[in-house]
Structure to design on (190 residues):
């Protein structure tokens, strides 16, 4: 008869939780947009969040991002420490990105620049440098959407739909076993 011992690693041995939320997605996407859309004179484009920004839309050119859907891609994975259960979640988000252009940079040019670069492996390389578990999947739908401003003038506006995957982790306090001891008997080896 033999005994098998297994010990749970202590809390300080387990990896740190990956905390990522929609603000991180907006931040990473803003960084990507500024890296992928050339602006004359080397300036940065203003990037705003859609419905939740509580401000008047800026003067074009600018880009507006809005989360329009989120879905779970797979069942959660769990890992345990002596005091916590950590759940690793897998999600896909759908974002609408509105490009508002002006004479110095047209909306179509911005949208096309984003679409080509986001659908290239260059996007994965860029997102890797942001050090968050956020992964570009693909973008589609270069559409000219009519937008009439408060002065009854048509704005130069194109819309693209982008899809990203992200993997947040959530910790829950939980008492768990810290040690397992099993008695085992060797099988007959005839």
């Amino acid at each position: 008869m033999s005994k098998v011992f297994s010990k749970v690693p202590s809390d300080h041995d387990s990896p740190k939780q990956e905390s990522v939320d929609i603000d991180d997605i907006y931040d990473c996407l803003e960084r990507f947009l500024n890296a992928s859309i050339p602006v004359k004179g080397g300036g940065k484009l203003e990037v705003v969040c859609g419905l939740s920004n509580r401000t008047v839309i800026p003067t074009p050119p600018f880009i507006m991002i809005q989360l329009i859907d989120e879905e779970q891609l797979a069942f959660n994975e769990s890992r345990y420490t002596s005091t916590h259960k950590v759940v690793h979640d897998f999600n896909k988000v759908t974002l609408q990105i509105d490009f508002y252009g002006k004479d110095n940079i047209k909306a179509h040019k911005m949208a096309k620049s984003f679409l080509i670069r986001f659908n290239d492996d260059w996007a994965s390389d860029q997102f890797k440098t942001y050090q968050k578990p956020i992964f570009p999947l693909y973008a589609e739908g270069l559409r000219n959407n009519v937008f009439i401003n408060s002065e009854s003038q048509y704005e130069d506006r194109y819309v693209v739909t982008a899809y990203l995957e992200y993997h947040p982790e959530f910790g829950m306090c939980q008492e768990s076993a810290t040690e397992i001891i099993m008695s085992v008997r060797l099988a007959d080896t005839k």
